[in-house]
Amino acid sequence: MKIFGLVGRSGSGKTTLMVALLPALIRRGLTVSTVKHAHHGFDLDRPGKDSFRHREAGAGEVMLVAGDRWALMHEIRDGVEPPLEELIARLAPVDLVLIEGFHTHAHPTIEIHRPSEGHDLMWRENSDIVAVASDQPLIGVGVPVLDLDDVEAIADFVCRRVGLAG
């Protein structure tokens, strides 16, 4: 499976681009899955629900299954967050896995950058950031600068970069 990432500062629009990019890639006939890194703990469960009680009682994994989807929750407990490669290996095969976050992992990424937010670029020479998508023109960036609002051009760039026809 090919992997490609979106990185950027909090509030830059990573998720907004992700949800616009997914249909553009799927229209090209690609199968796509996503992995999103959450910087803070999260819970898909609610206290009192059976699955929550299973985890609370010590289950290492709990699978929820319904007619239209299933989800597997794995408790890390005192362990460490698994490497991205291990997480991707758990996914069903697809053409492309889009990664949101995981900016320290070595895979090609587009940085989402909004100068109006006042943050410096994450891009540095020899980083894994292969393009910057911005809502304003940028000067002096050593990688292509893409128009953040041109989702089709970004989808074209991703497909070319990972070697997928689309």
Task: Please provide a written account of the structure.
The protein has helices at residues 14-27, 50-56, 84-89, 151-162; strands spanning 2-8, 32-36, 61-65, 70-74, 96-100, 109-113, 129-134, 145-147. With 166 residues, the protein is of the alpha/beta class. It has a single domain (2-41, 81-162), classed as P-loop containing nucleotide triphosphate hydrolases (Rossmann fold, 3-Layer(aba) Sandwich). The model has no long low-confidence stretch (mean pLDDT 91).
Strand element count: 8
Distance between the termini: 15 Å
Which structural class matches the secondary elements? alpha/beta
How is the quaternary structure best described? Answer: single chain
Main CATH class: Alpha Beta
In short:
This protein is an alpha/beta fold and 166 residues long. The protein has helices at residues 14-27, 50-56, 84-89, 151-162, and strands spanning 2-8, 32-36, 61-65, 70-74, 96-100, 109-113, 129-134, 145-147. The strands form two sheets. It has a six-stranded parallel β-sheet with strand order 2-5-1-6-7-8, covered by helices on one side.
Helix and strand layout, with pairings?
Elements: E1 2-8, H1 14-27, E2 32-36, H2 50-56, E3 61-65, E4 70-74, H3 84-89, E5 96-100, E6 109-113, E7 129-134, E8 145-147, H4 151-162
Parallel strand pairs: 1-5, 1-6, 2-5, 6-7, 7-8
Antiparallel strand pairs: 3-4
Helix pairs in contact: 1-4
How would you describe this structure in keywords?
23% helix, 25% strand, MobB_dom, MGD_biosynthesis_adapter, 166 residues, GTP binding, globular, 6-stranded parallel β-sheet, P-loop_NTPase, Molybdopterin-guanine dinucleotide biosynthesis protein B, two-stranded antiparallel ribbon, Rossmann fold, alpha/beta
